[in-house]
Amino acid sequence: MSKYISVALRRHLPMARVDYIRVEGKEWVPDPEKRYQTIEKLGPLVLEIPSLVSLVMEDIPKTFSLTDDGIHRKDLPLIPRNVIREAIVNALMHRNYRKHSPVQIIRYANRIEIRNAGYSLKPEEQLGEPGSVPRNPRIAAVLHDLGLAETKGTGIRAMQEAMKQANLTLPLFESDRVADTFTVRLLAHHLLSEEDWKWLEQFKDYNLSNEEARALIIAREVGAIDNSAYRSITRVDALTASAHLRRLRDLGLLEQKGQARATYYIPTPKLLTDWGIETNVEKFTRMDPTTYRQVGGLNPTTYAQKVGLGPLPKELAEEILSLKRRNPPQKLRNLIYKLCSWRPLSPIHLEGLLGKGRAYLVERHLRPMLRNGELEYIYPDNPAHPRQAYRAVPGRRDLNESYVEQREGDNKG
């Protein structure tokens, strides 16, 4: 019987599957040569839900505790099992089955993201409050009868409370009505751990509140934060969240992107590097040039490690260190192409590596290279994606060409 069910699903609902994707690192497609590992699951929901929960739980790091008698060890998953179960059930029960897009469960090094087609029919500000608005009432009824879902609207609150009890960052929920998607992000990250407090010490002169400190941790780990995410982790109202995010922006720790309801914030180099608010050009030029760059930032190899980019190839590091205050535009574009061939990079990472202003890099180099087909977005359908990055298109630039100035005005690198 199961064989016939599988054949029927593949014939009539081939995109009703779930993709479990393992990604190395903290960003999508960190290594073009080894992008990800995936497991595709397609079957009856009543069978696939327990199977998916078990599959995810196998990958979650474990901690252990001892019972009162101090003899028997008990392994505990870092993210509680009921949180994973609620998130998976929510995705499968509320997904838009009219849209041919598989549910994705993406396991990054520091978090799990569960994405499904179908924005929340319940307003974001009411998530976690009693009352359910199911998109698929028949599926919801069956899962309720089988004890897999409660259909009372308390699932999200249960996830929040479980993460809070485990001293983990609260779940982040993102409902995108335009893209018709819903995303749950679960960070395998203790809320304001000892390491976090040490990292936040560099910003002590800013007098950050606990809510603002949590926001910086999220921005550092995920790469972006918006009003909805801020409310999810702090439980403040929308106006308070906006005021706090603007303050972090004005302090130079976050950079504002988008407009109106599409506003979000990304980390600045000041936030992503750990040399703190006392950093200035004079300080670094007094230091050992083999440790810090003369242009006023971290050594590119150190910077790459600090922000989670991985080991920077030696030849790239040497070429970056050879840059001068002014460089022929083709030389800088060649280097950008090589860096984006190494791995996809965001403008903020290129700014940190090259020591050049982000606006300058985007306007004078990245956008022209994008138009010329030398670079491409990793999220081509959403140029304003908060984790947007550029990767090199193979074979689109002759790296042996001489450094020829395109025009006199361009030579301002």
Structure description:
The protein contains 16 helices and 13 strands. The protein has 413 residues and is an alpha+beta fold. The chain folds into three domains: 2-186, 2-Layer Sandwich (Heat Shock Protein 90); 194-272, Orthogonal Bundle (Arc Repressor Mutant, subunit A), CATH 1.10.10; 289-410, Arc Repressor Mutant, subunit A (Orthogonal Bundle), CATH 1.10.10. The strands form four sheets. The protein has a six-stranded mixed beta sheet with strand order 2-1-5-6-8-7. A three-stranded antiparallel beta sheet has the order 9-11-10. Strands 3-4 form a two-stranded antiparallel sheet. The chain starts with a helix and ends in a 21-residue tail after the last strand. The relative contact order is 0.08.
In short:
The protein is of the alpha+beta class and about 425 residues long. Helices cover about 40% and strands about 15% of the residues.
Please give the number of β-strands.
13
User: Which structural class is indicated by helix and strand composition?
Assistant: alpha+beta
SSE pattern, N- to C-terminal: HEEHEEHEEHHEEHHEHHEEHHHHHHHEE
CATH architect. name of the largest domain:
2-Layer Sandwich
For the largest beta-sheet, the strand count, sense and barrel status come to: 6 strands, mixed
Overall shape: it is globular
Q: Report how far apart the termini are.
A: 67 Å
What's the number of domains?
A: 3
Number of helices, where a helix is a run of at least 4 consecutive DSSP H or I residues:
16
Helix coverage percent of residues?
25-40%
What strand line-up does the widest sheet have? 2-1-5-6-8-7
* CATH top level class name of the largest domain: Alpha Beta
Mean pLDDT: 79
What Rg, in angstroms, do the CA atoms define?
24 Å
